[in-house]
Amino acid sequence: MRSLRVMSILPAIMLGSGACASSEQWARWREHSSHFASGDHLIFSLRNEGHPAAPRVTPEDLAEAQTERWWGDPVAVRPDQLVNR
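and the corresponding structure tokens:
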């Protein structure tokens, strides 16, 4: 009886969690084989998580993003906002 309950709840959880992304986000996810383009991309994203109004972006980040063709939500930064490492 317990396994039947688990088997009926599990698909509902999976369906509910899959509905959290927009169709655009799903399309972007299908285009790439991983969540991040590189370790540098991961570090950049973690460093700026929760700080969308004041991202910490270096000239090296911009160069790596262009070279490695990072994807995801763009981070807008003016030239006067760039920081040095």
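(Above: one complete record from the training split.) The radius of gyration is 18 Å.
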